[in-house]
Design goal:
Elements: E1 6-8, E2 16-22, E3 25-30, E4 33-37, E5 44-46, E6 53-59, E7 62-67, E8 72-76, E9 82-84, E10 92-98, E11 101-106, E12 109-113, E13 120-122, E14 129-135, E15 138-143, E16 148-152, E17 158-160, E18 168-174, E19 177-182, E20 185-189, E21 196-198, E22 206-212, E23 215-220, E24 225-229
């Protein structure tokens, strides 16, 4: 498949509230259930639990699931077994996993979270982050205002990048690059400057975007799931 090409995978994923990837497999919370999805076909299996997940990130072999009631769970991607971690997480914004830590926006503040127990420390800044992606030792935050920021995962120190992203509906990192769907168009975003270029055709209504290798997986508003070559 050429860059910008895409294909629709099997099955329907309406009511998906969160999605992530662990070791080459897709995971999604759809209509309150957690599914492992084959990224080649779209076939799936249901894992344990009943979920009201609003944000999900992957780190190592685990999924981390922030629930609508404020709880945070660590879930083994291989088995679906889960453990509640410490802390309460109201008014969630973007989340990401990287540098052996979790990162989460809650009530406008950025936190680094210990994946072992949920202990956290607050980093710099005041945020209205809709979407967050980790790339190397840096975090990228698409804000409600349309601004895009790059922040140090170690300190939270931040810098605004180029561009206006008020219409961004989903974002992800993949293959060493950043990608965002804004105004129905997929963009490849330079992590150093924020400069961007379009990838493929427009018309996307993507709610969740997940990167695996040289592909993005787009969960669409109507429930379709697409694999996009990048």
């Amino acid at each position: 498949m050429e860059r910008g090409g895409y294909e629709q995978l099997e099955n329907t994923w309406a009511d998906t509230t969160a999605a992530a990837a662990v070791k080459g497999a897709l995971y999604a919370v759809t209509a309150g259930s957690l599914y492992r999805i084959d990224p080649a076909t779209g076939n799936y299996e249901q894992l344990d639990g009943s979920w009201s997940t609003v944000r999900m990130a992957a780190l190592g072999d685990d999924l981390f699931m922030w629930e609508s009631g404020g709880s945070l769970y660590r879930t083994a991607a291989a088995t679906g077994e889960y453990t509640q971690l410490d802390g309460s997480w109201p008014e969630m914004g973007g989340v990401a996993g990287g540098m052996k830590s979790l990162f989460a926006i809650s009530q406008g503040s950025l936190y680094r979270v210990n994946p072992a127990d949920g202990a956290y420390e607050q980093l710099e800044g005041s945020w209205e982050t809709r979407h967050m992606a980790a790339l190397g030792e840096r975090l990228f935050m698409w804000e409600k205002s349309g601004a895009l920021y790059r922040a140090s995962a170690a300190t939270g120190e931040w810098k605004q990048l180029e561009g206006s992203w008020a219409g961004t509906t989903a974002a992800a990192s993949a293959n060493g690059r950043l990608f965002a769907i804004d105004g129905g168009t997929l963009y490849d975003v330079d992590p150093e400057t924020g400069a961007y270029e379009t990838v493929g055709d427009g018309g996307w209504k993507t709610q969740h975007l997940v990167g695996i290798g040289k592909f993005l997986y787009a969960f669409e508003e109507g429930g379709s799931l697409y694999r996009l070559a990048i």
